[in-house]
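Take a record.
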Amino acid sequence: MDIYRFTPGHTPLLISVPHSGTYIPDTLKERMTDAGVAISDTDWYVDRLYDFAAELGAGVLVATHSRYVIDLNRDSAGSELYPGADNTELCPTTTFAYEDIYRASLTPDLDEISARIERHWRPYHEALRRELDRLQERYGQALLLDAHSIPSRVPRFFEGVLPDLNLGSGDGMTASTALIRRLGDVIGRAPRYASVVDGRFKGGFITRTYGQPADGFHAVQMELTQTNYMNEYQPYEYLPDRAGALKVVLQKFVEELLHWAAEQSSE
């Protein structure tokens, strides 16, 4: 199976969806526990939530494999995403609920992790870098939206209930300050949804690596709570009515990215 699906656009915006993939090779499934095979920590249906993107001219890059194979939003060198906090690994060994992903003594060793980096991680990031460079050369700037979702309650990482819309910009370092403010205003005005900018989720490895505004690369992360578009528990079904309301907000969010980009091009 291909490592990713890529649909090119005709604007400076690329949407990356690194965690909605569900594919796990059979040889790997054989080593996993029931909790591992259930892939509960998937960013379920996120690519479906942004299915309007192509009509707006945004490119879309979607990973096909589960984050349990390898987490594309982590540093391949193994550095922690949030130093001092609880972090899942490049090749996760436990779920968000601390359940073992692998059966006893069957976790990947360093050689296997290195092989997964070459087979899965590197091709995705090469595609991401290649497209962003193309956009920056073509338009004078490149915008990246890294799209994610998570259950509204994950005690391993935070207390209580997460806000519905979590915008991350590396504490203002990964995109233009004016763009971040405008995007924050969009989600702040969204009825029914609580929002935050650079709260618990400040943007992962992808956002922080590719967001270099001084060089014309602007990146932000959007982390959605899953209760607003699906059942957070098995069988994890998509709820069209809830999703439809959320997609209205996401489309306004993407449109604001494109409006800002157009304004910069006309200056």
Remarks:
- The beta strands are 4-7, 13-17, 59-63, 142-150, 165-168, 195-197, 217-225.
- The domain at 4-266 is CATH 3.40.630.40 (Aminopeptidase).
- The longest strand covers residues 142-150.
